[in-house]
Design goal:
The complex is a heterodimer of chains A (340) and B (338).
Chain A: H1 2-29, H2 44-53, H3 60-72, E1 78-79, E2 85-86, H4 87-122, H5 127-141, H6 144-158, H7 187-193, H8 197-234, H9 237-244, H10 249-277, H11 281-286, H12 292-301, H13 305-333
Antiparallel strand pairs in A: 1-2
Helix pairs in contact in A: 1-13, 4-5, 4-8, 4-10, 5-8, 6-8, 7-8, 8-10, 9-10, 10-13, 12-13
Chain B: H1 3-40, H2 42-59, H3 61-64, H4 118-154, H5 156-170, H6 174-185, H7 189-215, H8 219-226, H9 231-239, H10 244-268, H11 279-285, E1 294-296, E2 299-301, H12 305-332
Antiparallel strand pairs in B: 1-2
The chains are: A mainly alpha (340), B mainly alpha (338).
């Protein structure tokens, strides 16, 4: 087990080098990598100075070396898309928001998806089953940004139940007033720890729509997986044994069938969570969520290559780690699986 | 040429046709059976109908929404640019750009930013979506097919290299890598398509490689090889054709997904630029008015049509190909058959 984990972590290094070389080469071959930092109005000598400070006059492999050196020493470049913050600072600032959003939406998706999948498998070919499958199909086909817009327009704008955008109400956080302890950096957790009810409900009402929007797609996938693995498990011998022992149907379904059907579902949950952690670009964009996704979209639009590179790297790390965690978890959940 | 000769030549041709027919017969029977299974599936047929009607819309776009000869100002050369105009409706005093106009007689589905015709955009957008998705998926399939087949068949260092390269591409979520590539290449539809091809080929290479690894152990491949066929012939005549059905199923599903991702990138602003007929971009046109109203000629309204109709078209497109792909999988996968 330990050698497996270590080997997989070591495998991260070539993957990260590959991703960074690929994106880095692209930024240098096409377009002007200094475009985000230089405007045409600047005097020529200032332009030249900026270019020199970015090592743009050196050969491309030297530039890459400088960039890699910076990454290893915590100097990730300056992010134009985040008010000229350091890329690493920007990521540290935005990651908690993205993480919280991913957590909440995954939670919703798991609760809803698992129960819908179970119901639709147990009551196979009934109205419930068909309705669930249609919903799952819609979840796969409906573009996430359209869903986000619909939620925003209907529930936030027309009905006014939720705030329009953002992660919190700035009026609740007056500047220069330090009346809240930031224990974790995560807004919902911090407001709970501070026993601050108004801010807590404010944070919840802000996160509700984006979280539901993100959950919808995952629910579709989860329901499908849960339904098929439930159907598979229900036909197995030990379920029949449990039934013939005279156990009530509910216990058989819950303890014998569902627990085992959850194993493949866990994999999907892990992978979708990993994907969401990288930032749900489109949803965050629509709801103006101050997380990594919205920031990366802004960076992509403003030619901010330092942010694009940093973001892609972080996403790759998160995604690979999520894959690893899923594999390890699988081995724990299913003793038949051997990691080598 | 003597008469007898011509007869001989003709009968020779007939014999050849007969033998060709004979060799094709099992394949035709197979196809007929697949078609029969396909017809039985309601959802798959629904998918096929959606896809075919969208295809018809794309092909007959010039008939359904003829590009204007006089109306559009300066955008008659490229029919993919949605016509917009300033003159048909009275402008509110002080306004430079006409506001979105509700569905009515002149514009059956209303207008968007600066009076772009939504209906026109939807019709020509079908062409854009078909073009993007077919182009991206077919190129990704070809690249993946060739590289995956070579790697799986020859193994060794080529295989190792390909697997490491695909590792790199598969370690970043597709949308994000595509966004990064499209961002550094610059904003245009071509660059988005390029980015999508870059992101989309590795999974195909993996699928084909896996298939080739199992198929190349079969006796008929051995037979072809021992009867003296050259490696390339064995690979592309005897091995690759048998890998095609999972590739076909995946490709059909992916056509929908490619359009989803392309629309997403266009929605952010990376793809086609205003006033190009692309559904994702048209949705983003409505951004300004998601949560606000317009007052125009005494009426106050929220122009939902700017984003809702293009959004519906994307949903329809993706759903059509998804259902079709599902149906194809049920038919082509022997384990799910019957």
């Amino acid at each position: 087990m330990r050698t497996f984990i270590i080997r997989r972590l070591l495998l991260l290094i070539p993957v990260l080098i590959g991703v960074s070389v690929f994106v880095f080469m692209l930024t240098r071959i096409s377009g002007n990598p200094a475009a985000a930092y230089i405007t045409e109005k600047m005097p020529l000598d200032v332009q030249a100075k900026i270019k020199a400070s970015l090592h743009l006059n050196e050969p491309i492999y030297v530039q890459y070396w400088y960039w890699l050196d910076g990454i290893l020493h915590g100097n990730w470049g300056v992010s134009k898309a985040a008010q000229n913050l350091d890329v690493s600072t920007a990521i540290a600032e935005k990651f908690p928001f993205t993480f919280e959003l991913a957590m909440v939406s995954t939670l919703i998706a798991v609760v809803v998806g698992v129960s819908l999948g179970t119901i639709s498998a147990v009551r196979r070919n009934t109205v419930v089953d068909h309705a669930t499958r249609v919903m799952a199909l819609a979840g796969v086909c409906l573009p996430v940004f359209i869903l986000a817009i619909i939620l925003k327009v209907v529930f936030a704008y027309q009905l006014g139940w939720f705030p329009l955008s953002g992660a919190y109400d700035p009026f609740l956080y007056p500047p220069f007033v330090a009346d809240m302890n930031h224990y974790t950096g995560f807004l919902i957790t911090d407001t709970i720890l501070n026993l601050d009810l108004p801010r807590f409900s404010d944070a919840i009402s802000h996160i509700a729509l984006p979280a539901i929007c993100l959950a919808f797609g995952s629910i579709a996938i989860l329901t499908r997986i849960m339904r098929s693995s439930m159907l598979e498990v229900m036909g197995l011998d030990y379920v029949k044994t449990a039934r013939s022992k005279g156990l009530p149907e509910r216990v058989v379904m819950r303890k014998h069938a569902r627990r085992n059907a959850l194993i493949p579902t866990t994999t999907v949950v892990g992978l979708t969570f990993g994907g969401l952690l990288g930032g749900a670009v489109l949803t965050e964009f629509v709801f103006a969520w101050p997380g990594m996704g919205g920031w990366s979209a802004a960076a992509a639009l403003s030619n901010d290559w330092a942010s694009i590179l940093g973001f892609t790297l972080v996403t790759a790390i998160i995604y690979v780690l999520a894959n690893l965690v899923v594999d390890v978890m699988y081995a724990f959940l299913d003793p038949r699986v051997q990691l080598e | 040429m003597a008469k007898g000769d011509a007869k001989g030549w003709k009968s020779g041709l007939n014999v050849q046709i007969e033998s060709l027919k004979k060799s094709l017969r099992p394949r035709i029977r197979e196809w007929k059976f697949s078609l029969f299974l396909f017809r039985k599936s309601v959802l798959a047929m629904a998918g096929l109908i959606i896809v075919l009607s969208l295809l018809l819309v794309a092909v007959f776009a010039p008939v359904l929404a003829p590009p204007p000869m006089i109306r559009g100002l300066g955008n008659m050369k490229d029919p993919m640019q949605i016509p917009y105009d300033f003159g048909l409706f009275p402008k509110p005093p002080g306004a430079v750009k006409p506001p979105p106009y509700p569905p009515g007689q002149t514009y059956p589905l209303g207008t968007g930013l600066q009076g772009t015709d939504i209906y026109y955009g939807l019709v020509w957008g079908a062409r854009t979506s078909m073009y993007i998705s077919l182009y991206v998926v077919s190129l990704a399939v070809i690249i993946g097919l060739v590289l995956g087949a070579l790697a799986g068949y020859y193994g060794g260092k080529i295989d190792e290299l390909l697997m490491r390269v695909t590792d790199v591409f598969l370690s970043v979520p597709g949308l994000i890598l595509a966004m990064a590539v499209a961002a550094v290449l610059g904003r245009s539809l071509e660059n988005v398509m390029l980015a999508l091809i870059v992101v989309w080929w590795p999974p195909y290479a993996r699928i084909v490689r896996g298939q080739v690894l199992t198929i190349k152990e079969n006796t008929y491949v051995e037979a072809a090889r021992s009867s003296g066929a050259k490696p390339m012939r064995v690979l592309f005549r005897h091995v690759v054709p048998n890998t095609l059905s999972p590739v076909l199923v995946n490709a059909t599903m992916d056509i929908g997904v490619v359009v989803l991702v392309a629309a997403g990138l266009s929605f952010i602003g990376l793809g086609a630029q205003w006033p190009y007929a692309e559904w994702g971009r048209m949705v983003s046109e409505g951004q300004t008015w998601f949560t606000s109203t317009i007052t125009y000629q005494g009426n106050q309204y929220n122009p939902y049509w700017v984003w809702a109709f293009p959004g519906l078209m994307i949903l329809l497109f993706v759903m059509g190909f998804n259902l079709l792909g599902d149906g194809l999988r049920d038919i082509l996968d022997p384990r799910l058959r019957r």
